[in-house]
Specification:
heterodimer, A: about 120 residues, mainly beta, Immunoglobulin-like, 6-stranded mixed beta sheet, 4-stranded antiparallel beta sheet, B: about 110 residues, 7-stranded mixed beta sheet, about 0% helix, globular
């Protein structure tokens, strides 16, 4: 079965330290890869996506993600965490060739807590 | 530009009652999607509209769920009768021809 794994339910990081939120996937072909963030009482917000090209993708709020095809991973990173980065982060994949069908396969989410 | 909006933001109903969720997509977006996240689990696809037509409803859990998109604008998702396991957050998203979809804030449904 095709799936996305976020192995950590929660990640705790001190403010100013680098952060990594892990994501691996098991799908056929070469999917599109996404990260979304959900702040408290807010909807899902798009952070960044990988389509093709450079394996390091830069997104909103200083986040970036590195696509690693051999490890089928797409870890989310930020060099220096802010308290305001505390939120729920979701990794998702979309299978190529589905045109406008946006049937995403999602990870379970990782709660990121940044402590002052 | 207005984003995707969902109503209500929260709903608490008793088992056996009916609830209708509404989603207003971004104007001009032909594609509209419903997703659901049951507590602590991954977000699951429910169905996909292209304009007023159901393109894919393979994720709908059972026949207690009915989605409509009359006129190809806003969409409703009705749960009748609601069961305890229907509790969760229901997300709506819309997209045009691009890769990215835009999500609403979600409706938190609690069935007691």
């Amino acid at each position: 079965a095709q799936s996305v794994a976020q192995p950590e339910d929660q990640v705790n990081v001190a403010e100013g330290n680098p952060l990594t939120v892990k994501c691996t996937y098991s799908v056929s072909g070469n999917p599109y890869l996404f990260w979304y963030v959900q702040y408290p009482n807010r909807g899902l917000q798009f952070l960044l996506k990988y389509i093709t090209g450079d394996n390091l993708v830069k997104g909103s709020y200083g986040f970036e993600a590195e696509f690693n095809k051999s490890q089928t991973s797409f870890h989310l990173k930020k060099p220096s965490a802010l308290v305001s980065d505390s939120a729920l982060y979701f990794c998702a994949v979309r299978l190529r060739g589905m045109d406008s069908n946006y049937q995403l396969i999602w990870g379970a989410g990782t709660k990121l807590i940044i402590k002052p | 530009e207005a984003g995707v909006t969902q109503f209500p933001s929260h709903s608490v109903i008793e088992k056996g009652q009916t609830v209708t969720l509404r989603c207003d997509p971004i104007s001009g977006h032909d594609n509209l999607y419903w997703y659901r996240r049951v507590m602590g689990k991954e977000i699951k696809f429910l169905l996909h509209f292209v304009k007023e037509s159901k393109q894919d409803e393979s994720g709908m859990p059972n026949n207690r769920f009915l989605a409509e998109r009359t006129g190809g604008t806003y969409s409703t998702l009705k749960v009748q009768p609601a069961e305890l396991e229907d509790s969760g957050v229901y997300f709506c998203a819309s997209s045009s021809q691009g890769v990215e979809a835009f999500f609403g804030q979600g409706t938190r449904l609690t069935v007691v």
